[in-house]
Amino acid sequence: MTFPERPAAQPPAEDDEPFGRSSAPPGSPGDPLDRLALLGASWTWVLASALATLVFGVLLLVWPDKSLHVVAVLIGLYLLAAGVFQFVAAFAGHPQAGERWSRLLVAVVYVVAGVLCLRGPRLTITVLALIIGMVWLISGMLGVYAAVADKQLAHRGLAFGMAALGVVAGIVVLCLPIESAVALTRLLGLWLVLLGLAETAAAFALRSALRR
C-alpha cells in the first residue's frame, strides 16, 4: 500500500537527505532520486497503485474456480506490480533513512514472493497460503512501524489501520487451514478490493491536499 509523504512547505536542506544525490542541478532530468521522489509523491501514482490492486482483486473474485497454476500466476503478477509501486513510494518525500529502508524492505518482500509464485508451477494450496500469509504479516508489521515512526506520513491513521489489518490477515491465513484454491482466491480477492478502495480514497485525498 503506497502512502506518500505530506506535501512539504519547503524542501529540506541537501545535507539532510539520507540518500546522497547526484551532482546534477536540482530538478534536472539527470537526478534519478528527484525523479523517483516526484513520481512517488504524485497522487496519480497512488491512484495507479489503487487501480492495479482493484483489477487483480476483481479478477480473483470473478475467477475463483480457476486452476491453482492460474491463481499463482495472478498472485505473482500482483506481487511484482505491488513491489514496483512500493519501491517508488519509498522515495516519495524525505523520510528518515530507517523509514525509507523499511519501505524498501516491503518492496523486496513483494518482489521475492511474486517470483516464488511465478516460478512454482507445482505450488500446493498450503505453500501458496504460506507465501501470502507471510507477505501480509511482514508488510503489515513494517507498515505499522512506518506509520508510527513517520509523523509526516500522509493519511497516517488510515495507513496504520490498513497495516494492522494486514497483520491480522496474515495471522489468520497462517493459522487457519485453507483446503481449496477457491477459498484462498476469494479471501485474497476480497482483501485486494478493500485495499484498492482505501488506496483510491487516499489518492483523491492527496490530490485535494496538493491543490490546497
UniProtKB/TrEMBL annotation:
Pfam families: DUF308. The keyword rRNA processing does not apply. Residues 1-12 have a biased composition (Low complexity). The chain crosses the membrane at residues 43-63, 69-92, 104-121, 127-148, 160-182, 188-206. Keywords: Membrane, Transmembrane, Transmembrane helix. The keyword Transit peptide does not apply. Residues 1-29 are annotated as: Disordered. PANTHER family: PROTEIN HDED (PTHR34989). This is DUF308 domain-containing protein. It comes from Streptomyces antimicrobicus.
